[in-house]
Amino acid sequence: MNYFFQKFGRILVIWLPLGWLLLFFMLPLVEMINVSFSEARRAVPPYIPAFQIGSGGFSFRPVLDNYLLIYEYWEDYLWPAINSIRLAFFSTLYCLLFAYPMAWWIARSNKSIQHILLILVLMPFWTSSLLRMYALIGLLNPNGFINDVLIWAGITVTPIQMMQTDFSIYSGMILTYLPLMILPLYASLVRLDVSIIEAAADLGAKKWDIFRTIVLPLSIPGIVAGSLLVFIPAVGEFVIPALLGGPEQLMLGKVIWTEFFRNRDWPVAAAIAIILIAIIILPIVYARYQDRERIS
Amino acid sequence: MAPFIRIQNISKKYGKLLAVDNVSFDLEKGELFSLLGPSGCGKTTLLRILAGFELTTEGYVEIDGQDMVDVDPADRPVNIMFQNYALFPHMSVSNNIGYGLKRASLPDNEIKSRVSELLELVHLNGMGERKPSTLSGGQRQRVALARALARRPKLLLLDEPLAALDKKLRSETQFELCKIQEQLGTTFVVVTHDQEEAMTLSTRIGVMNNGKLVQVGTPNEIYEQPQTTFVADFVGEISFIEVTVKEQKEPYWLMQGAVPIHVSTGAKFRINQKVNLALRPEKISLTSKPTGKINEFPVEITDWAFYGAGTQYRVVGPGGINLKLYESHNLPSKSNARQPETGFINFSPDSIIILER
Beta B187-192 vs B32-36: how paired, if at all? Predict the structure, then answer.
């Protein structure tokens, strides 16, 4: 009886989350792929599914038109794609530069206050990200708080343009994604044994040398994990560039949104999304594969 | 001539806690000095002061005539081997050992030849490309030793160097460590809580308690002539008898506790002075019948333990004095022999340690 419950419990623990993922993550993704190979039409839904199950069994008629269309007008998509990667890349970099010293400081502070500091890091997640973006707009606007202070202090006469610039995008991105960078960095830095750092100092290494030869290499797993956690959602980010960016900051997320809701061209929108996923996933899969090759 | 290493009036306070309390001692070049004491006695703090990781509240350290007070750990002619070895997990054995040499900006070919010399010294030839995680505990310990020796420090500090090894490996490594130390002539300071380790390794031992250095001496002096009850009790097995000085009966002093005891010593006492007598277990003989020797009295055997090379007994004498004694098996010990329940013990008047009470 006990054995039965043990076995049943194990099955439940593994299969319940897996079932959830299959149902609500894999199926929509497959549906998205399905849509991307479908033919557009003016109806509800606005496409003829490539794969469908009906009264006459199932049929599979994929069309490549959507991908060909993107290929044909590639110049229209290239710029937002480059923009997405550029903004996501620098957002990740800035997050890393901000997060590293913070993670180090938390990992090296007194054990009793580490938990409090980590909760403070997560605090922004407790408010809606949309709300935080509007708060940021309030700060960065031409008649926002920062410009008011600068004009009052006599540092500038006319308001400084901060909205609709890369600066506003990066501000929003860092505000949103910094905790996702800090946590894995903290996890890898807190495991670093103090005596290893002391050993390096004892063997003649100065501060910068210790960082370069000991701390940095040993925190690479944290850097990689944090960078992936920030870069992947940042590439497809829609809300931040939509609210804080201008035409200069057009990203693929916005393009997909336009195709879906303005042009009601679901198949093309789905195709762009699939290409975006491929662009992000393939290098990671390749890197993992290389890693495994190297180990074995 | 000034001593090679001079440690003068060192104190270290953490808030109100006095971790090291006015410690002074000198070291000769090539000595292997052990700091022995229970955990929390301040020996590790003292070691960290010598390495430069902790600043002293008072006092100073001088190495080879050079004041070390303001010298950074990186610039001291001192290296330390950590208890957990603190090897760099992402570097090969060779890069671990060569790390300090690289910081000293030595040319690559010289680093290479020094590293292979060191690998040879610690018997790790051909292991240079391995990662520390693929080595056994004993091998890691030797990498740590080679790494600490690489910069040819004037003083090498070892924090519990053998604590992480199993018993068999420990005694082997002990002799290996002594051999390397003699070969190189480097001055070693070893921190340990294991009195046996301190005995076998050191030329001299400093016993610490509550931040104070309570006695410094050769292993023999520490064992045979402890100056305080703490040292006598901490180092080796010992039994105490409380007595009062009665009279001087040349060549002995007669002291009265539960039984009269004759003590042979050069020291002087007042009549009726209260002292503690201490006896090492191996100094006491156990016989089944009285022998008529001096300092003999009957005992009841309460407990015994077979150690292979000998047997340890716990006995209770007249007036309830508890004594531990050790009988080595000069002849093959008989198995299943029924242990006697009573007997007689005696000990020589000059094998008694006299301590203040």
Answer: parallel
